[in-house]
Amino acid sequence: MELIMAVAVGILFTIGVYLILSKSLLRIVLGTSLLTHGVHLLLLTMAGLKTGSAPVLGGQGETYVDPLPQALILTSIVISFGVTAFFFVLAYRAYQTLGTDEMDSLKGEEQ
Amino acid sequence: MLHATIWIPFLIAVLVPLTRRVPRLHAGWTVLAIPVALFLYFLMQIQGVRAGEYTLSTIPWMPSLGINITLYLDGLGLLFALLITGMGALVILYSIYYLNKRTESIHHFYIYLLMFMGAMLGVVLSDNLMVLYGFWELTSITSFLLIAFWHRRERSRYGALKSMLITVFGGLAMFAGFNLLYVMSGSYSIREIITQVDGLTGEPLFIPALLLILLGAFTKSAQFPFHIWLPDAMEAPTPVSAYLHSATMVKAGLYLVARLSPVFAGQSEWFWLISIVGLITLLFGSFKAIKQTDLKALLAYSTISQLGLIMCLLGLGSAAAFFPGTEESVLYAMATTAAIFHLINHAVFKGSLFMVVGIIDHETNTRDLRKLGGLISLMPVTFSVALIGAFSMAGLPPFSGFLSKEMFFTALLNIRDLNVLEVKSWLILFPVIAWTASVFTFVYSMILVFKTFTGKLQKEKLDKVPHEAPLGLLLSPVLLVSLAVIFGFFPNLLSHSLIEPAVASVHYGLLPPAETFPVSIHFWHGWTPEIFMTLGVVAVGVILYRGYSRLKFLEREWKGRDSLNRLYDGSLVLMERGSARLTSLYMTGSNRHYLLYIFGFFILALGSALLGAEGITLGMSHYAPLSLYETVVVAVMLLAALAVPFAKSRVNAILFTGAVGYMVTLLFVIFRAPDLALTQMIVETVSVILFLMCFKYLPKLKTVKERSGFRLPNLLIAVGVGLTMTVIALAAMGSSPFPAISEFFLKESYSLAGGKNVVNVILVDFRGFDTLFEIMVLAVASLAIYGLVNLRMEPGVSGRIPGEKRENRALLLRSNDVILRTMSKVIVIIIITFSMYLFFAGHNQPGGGFIGALMTSAALVLMAIAFGMDTVRKVLPLNYRMITAVGLLIAILTAAGSFIFGAPFLSHSFGHFMLPVMGDTELATAVLFDLGVYLAVVGVTMNIIFTIGGDE
């Protein structure tokens, strides 16, 4: 399972980075989204998968999965939500003002 | 007390602006008290230092790095401290009359000057090399500020920058040298390094350290070829030139050489470099001085030359270390004695000469030798001062300069016998060069006095009629030249009190403790070779001076800038242009390029680290079992992700991304992360709504193919990053160099924080600080969105892009679907109730502030979709930014509340309480913190949605 996850993380990163490097702002924002998913799965995979039951004490199992990555990911999910929303509004506002969402056209004039 | 001597100048510097309150009084009078008091303090220390009672005091600063503010007062330090405070007092006294309190910004001047004084004292009293270095650079900075005192002049700024660049360059080299010493000896303390010298000399880094440190000393003391900054530093006000650029700061290099002599003397490199560089500087400076027409420039080159002389003497003196404990050692140590004595003499006569030039400048408004002449009858006192100062500089009896010049010759003649280095025949050049330089010195000293004061007064070339300077201006130079006379007749006033202890510190450890280097300075030794050399200097000098007048030396056009200066200017321009070109080469302004660099570096750094590091194993021994169901989920996720770049329309791209998110949610469920699954699901839903709300304002995706030259590097980098991440994931599984902290969280979650849901406990308790900052980031993001959307555009641009009208909006904002509207009335209430449950259960069951808040937001969004945003606004007239603020406030207050109980920030407590309805309930303050999180997140989410959706 971990092997597959590692490969999946790699693929998510590849697509995310590829999108981030493209010209259109919308693709860039979507790229960061995919990148975030990749990071979350990476964090989760690092600690080992399915090594115990969910980290809620008093449950049936004796062992639990690592709670720390989960806490980190939870934080990250919410933050990336805020940041993605901000990105979107930025893109839309830039388009509204400048009439383009192409990165190269958004670039300022040379000083 | 020793520490106080350094801090007092800084402290008073801070207080100088207060003297503005008494505008009638020149700020200089207040400031003057400091150097006078410090000078008296150091005078009182003479007795103790002579008796060998060295004061040592330490204030710990960074003990773990071996850096402590250790001050140490020995003979050498005391000599310099007296020089700094004594000259400081005289210069400040002089400046009171020199700088007009109304037209000049004297407060700046005194602040800089006091800062310099403190820093310079720090240099000469520090035992710790790092502290010494810090003060050393501080003197460079204050010198920069003082040279640029008249910063409206272009020349001042040029000179200031030049001095700063050159001395700081040397300072950095010295810093590296100090650190090499530290690497070898394990100590920054000079005294400790000296005790370890025997072990150090064989180290391969010893000579590099020596060279680097000498670079610092040579740049600071304006030795050839780094002397070029000193003439340009003459743009500073004359008191500054007299103080920093002749008496004290430029001698810091000499101090460093003298101070580190016990470490490095005995290395032939040390001997040769210092004596030869000193000798070249001596000759070069004295020759250049003759050619100057500006009096201050003449003095600047003369200072360079004299610094070279002292440097050379220190080099010659280091020969004593070749013969520790023998007669010869005493013989060569004579040179060190001469160096120390000349150092004092130079400060005395050069200080007075600078002040004389300042007076001439003040009275005639010019320093140009071609315009001056015949001032003798108008300014008799100034003339006398100049005469004594210049004769002392030329090495004529009966002034103190004569004595040190004689000793200089003696040292040079002695060095001929040095045969350890098997270059005896070459050493004959030393006295020859020195003698030639002395002739030049004689000539420029004569020029200084007689060109200015004798001859014809050229009234037509002066803007005003000169007359004798006021008493206040004359006081300091007169005091100084009287010292030149006193030291000339009674040199032994200095020899036992100051010179002997100073020489002892330079030649530390060369002689058995009971013996000292005998210092006795006499006028007459009989018809020695030295006296004939002096006579020769005078004879040839007089002939040259006559030739100089006859040949109209001054009228000739000398090239304004010599080749070294051109080299400096040229390389500066070259570097500026080169760096601008280099920067514009890669700082293209294209976001994509920057990202390519970042990702490329990422691959290189992490990839090579992973491949190169040892102890990293890829993969783990026990993999979790794999089921078909999970494989399908992963496959669907990857397919959806792969579809995103190929999506032709925006809606598809967004929906594919959303699909990836939902698959990730499923994976969270599989991997036993209920909190994550809940959060991810709601966030994904809200995000997709957000995306759909936003995207209609964005242009359609371009179907135009991007050039392959554009896509190929992108693809390569992307695949590289992906591969690196896969390897990282595998490596992270395989190698764990230390036990994970998670065990602690699992074990202590209930006993320390009273919660069973470990993830939630980590968020609100163990790592509460992270959460606190996180909700702040969210709040900032939501405010930024609010700001961006409500930003008023300039008129004309504000219109939407045509064709992107809001037909779609109606769909989103108000659904006509009766079923949806009816259903949602019920569903919203159910969702909100569920969100409440999630919030309260959070500490012990999956849930918590984040999830509850997102769930509540989801309910509100559903309501908005069903009934329209305006309806929701009417039903719930809430200011969501306010809710965010309240949430943040609750979180911070809860966290700060632990202060009341004397616990650190964010300490939580919990206990069991009997509540009216709920019975025995376990309550934790963490829940209160979670409430803050809840409110903040609801506020943020709803603010974002309503801001974007409600934008007109």
UniProtKB/TrEMBL annotation, chain A:
TM spans (from-to): 6-21, 28-49, 69-92
Name of the protein described by the UniProt record: Na(+)/H(+) antiporter subunit C
Family annotation (Gene3D superfamilies): 1.10.287.3510
Organism annotation: Paenibacillus albidus
Keyword Membrane among record annotations: yes
GO cellular-component term (any): plasma membrane
Stated family: Belongs to the CPA3 antiporters (TC 2.A.63) subunit C family.
Annotated Pfam families: Oxidored_q2
Subcellular location: Cell membrane
Gene name tied to this protein: mrpC
Source organism phylogeny: Bacteria, Bacillati, Bacillota, Bacilli, Bacillales
Record keywords: Cell membrane, Membrane, Transmembrane, Transmembrane helix
Membrane topology term: Multi-pass membrane protein
Automatic annotation (TrEMBL), chain B:
Pfam (any one): MbhD
Major localization class: membrane
Tagged with keyword Transmembrane helix: yes
Gene Ontology CC annotations of this record: plasma membrane
Domain NADH:quinone oxidoreductase/Mrp antiporter transmembrane: 126-418
Domain spans labelled Na+/H+ antiporter MnhB subunit-related protein: 819-942
Keyword RNA-binding in record: no
MrpA C-terminal/MbhE domain mapped to chain residues: 711-790
Residue ranges crossing the lipid bilayer per the database entry: 6-22, 29-49, 69-97, 109-125, 131-151, 163-185, 205-230, 242-258, 270-287, 299-323, 329-360, 372-394, 426-450, 471-490, 531-548, 594-620, 626-646, 653-671, 677-695, 715-734, 772-791, 818-841, 847-868, 880-903, 923-946
Domain NADH-Ubiquinone oxidoreductase (complex I) chain 5 N-terminal stretches: 62-110
Topology with respect to the bilayer: Multi-pass membrane protein
Sorted UniProt keywords: Antiport, Cell membrane, Hydrogen ion transport, Ion transport, Membrane, Sodium, Sodium transport, Transmembrane, Transmembrane helix, Transport
Molecular function in Gene Ontology: antiporter activity
The MrpA C-terminal/MbhD domain, residue ranges: 636-700
Gene Ontology biological process terms from the UniProt entry: proton transmembrane transport; sodium ion transport
Subcellular location: Cell membrane; Membrane
Source organism, top-level taxon: Bacteria
Protein family membership: Belongs to the CPA3 antiporters (TC 2.A.63) subunit A family.
Protein name stated in the entry: Na(+)/H(+) antiporter subunit A
Originating species: Paenibacillus albidus
